[in-house]
Automatic annotation (TrEMBL):
Keywords noted in UniProt: Isomerase
UniProt keyword Protein transport present: no
Pfam families: MDMPI_N
Source domain of life: Bacteria
Positions of the Mycothiol-dependent maleylpyruvate isomerase metal-binding domain: 7-142
Protein name listed in UniProt: Maleylpyruvate isomerase family mycothiol-dependent enzyme
Segments for region (Disordered): 59-89, 211-233
An MF annotation (GO) of this entry: isomerase activity
Length: 233
């Protein structure tokens, strides 16, 4: 994945933010307890958090994404009420800081281990992939006209395969995901077919299974037979 993909996703989100009225900013998003303004503020502060971790990795030291959960929430709350143009400007400047941090990373430092706020440890090289997820999934979470159907084909193909690999062997009923792989444990059970963006949206909790074609042993069954995938960490 190239930085161009992140830049394009950022610009799409910026355009959405710019046109939101104050009333729309204050309206609920698809995320519990968060307004659209909370989602936009989170995306900006997340970029700053990742930039800080990249700077630390460049210097060979560990750094937390956020000082604390309380500080993270306070920053998001503080930025949530701003009008659309201010949100859009923040998205751009925080994204520029992120791009600068990426450009400044020496090649040998991309293998440096960093720690997510959940405690998961991974290489700094994965941070760019995390950024595109923040942009694309949270753009949908705004509930402002951008849907999984707007996701780019390359993004959908890559992330659908990644999610199926992630959920292979998970504590779920076994489901074959059309032409990609199988999630869950146990003998072959259900098969889910449909647009790849709809399959990904279901697996990452951005939509229900409605609209997917579900079969068991070749016989069509209701989409409600599909399990609910675990929430993203």
């Amino acid at each position: 994945m190239e930085m161009k993909e992140i830049e394009q996703a950022t610009e799409r989100l910026v355009r959405t933010a710019e046109r939101l009225t104050p009333e729309e900013i204050a309206a609920p998003s698809l995320l519990p307890r968060w307004t659209r303004g909370h989602v936009l503020a989170h995306v900006s502060r997340s970029a700053d958090a990742v930039s800080g971790v990249l700077e630390a990795a460049r210097e060979g030291r560990e750094a937390s994404m956020y000082p604390s959960e309380e500080a993270r929430e306070a920053d998001i709350d503080a930025g949530a009420g701003r009008p659309g143009p201010e949100q859009a400007a923040d998205l751009r400047t925080s994204s520029d800081r992120f791009a600068a941090a990426v450009a400044a990373m020496p090649q040998e430092r991309w293998g440096f281990e960093v720690r997510h706020r959940t405690g998961r440890v991974f290489s700094a090289a994965e941070l760019a992939g995390m950024r595109i997820l923040e942009l694309e999934y949270h753009h949908v979470d705004l509930d402002a006209g951008y849907t999984p159907g707007h996701w780019q084909e390359a993004f959908v193909d890559r992330e659908l395969r990644s999610m199926v690999e992630h959920l292979a062997g998970a504590e779920l009923p076994t489901v074959e995901i059309a032409d990609v792989g199988t999630i869950g444990r146990g003998p072959a059970g259900l098969r889910a077919d449909g647009p790849r963006a709809a399959l990904l949206a279901w697996l990452v909790g951005r939509s229900g299974p409605d609209g997917l074609t579900v079969t068991r042993d070749g016989e069509r069954v209701g989409s409600e037979t599909l399990p609910e995938p675990p929430p993203l960490a």
